[in-house]
Every structure is written in C-alpha cells, then in structure tokens.
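2.7 Reproducibility. Because tokenized structures are sensitive to small changes in the input, we list the exact sequence used for LysR substrate domain containing protein, including any N-terminal residues retained from the expression construct. No trimming or masking was applied before prediction.
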Amino acid sequence: MSTWQAARKEVAHTSRHNEFSIGASASLWECMLNQWLGRLYQNQDAHTGLQFEARIAQRQSLVKQLHERQLDLLITTEAPKMDEFSSQLLGYFTLALYTSAPSKLKGDLNYLRLEWGPDFQQHEAGLIGADEVPILTTSSAELAQQQIAMLNGCTWLPVSWARKKGGLHTVVDSTTLSRPLYAIWLQNSDKNALIRDLLKINVLDEVY
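Resulting structure tokens (single pass, no recycling of outputs):
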C-alpha cells in the first residue's frame, strides 16, 4: 500500500510540474489567445506533456497572481510597471469601431464599452463623444458582439477577429487604433526557458 501511495504522490508531483498557467482578459482569450493555445498544443513534443490552464480575470487580479507565483504567464495590452517582471512585446493588433449595419454614424448608435485596459480609456475619451455614456460595459468581445444589433450599438473590436465573424461593419465617421500585446512573467521564474520557448510560437495571427 505504501508503494502505491508513493507512486500516486510521484504522479501528482509530476503533474504539477507540467502545469502551465496563462492569464488574460476574456476578450483577449476570445479574439486572439484561443487560437494561440491551439498552436501550443499542436507544437508540443510528445514527451513534453504540458497541461495548460487558461485563466480569465481582470488585469489587476492577474498581476497579483503573477506576483504571488500563482500564475506563470500574463498576456496583456499594457507593459509591466514592476521591476521584478520580465516582458516581451508580442506585436500589435488593430481595433476598429464596429456596428451591425453598413453606413452608420457614431451619433446614431449607442456605445458599448468593451474593456481593453485602463490606458485604452484615455484614447477612448477622444474617439467617442465627450457626453457618451456606455449602454453596456463588458470584458467579453463575444457578449458585446452579440448585443450590437439588438442595442443598435457600436463597440471597439479587433479587425482580424471582426472580419472572421462576419456581419459587422465599421462605423463611417470613426478611425482605427493600434494596440500592443505583451507577455509578462516573473524575472526569477523557474519556467523562464519554457516561457521563451512558448513565445516563439506566434501569439498573434497577424504580427506587424
């Protein structure tokens, strides 16, 4: 019995060693990281056997988890502000203001706020009307996209994702906005080498 318990303990230890947690907002998982996760599995060697955890939460919660070693890797649109973090710029993606029908103007639409990080709100203020009050605020691109038609709304979505979705049209009197994407992890993480290997696999479909 003791041999069996020892074997089970060893399996559990190995399992924990092979776990790798990645944290990001809901919209980043929906629009970009889900495809990357698929590529990570496809590129794994048979002997690697990593068990990924895709964790969804707000950025501040994920930064705290990273700091407390409860998270291995954070993908976010903002560079880290703490010295103990390493970071890598993964590329940029383009946001555009989308609605459900062609030839629409901002003034005719209700604004749906999709959260793309605190620093995005600074840009947002200059891109929508100063008196514009969001009829909906969410961190989920899927949810926002599904509500656009019913609410006669518009929201900022990644261009590449919106094109694949179909049925979405850019608002006539709007612009586009480029956003960075960063990978962040602890400098002294024992998974440093693994993280750098994983980041060799393109996170963004379109990197420029």
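The chain has seven helices and nine strands.
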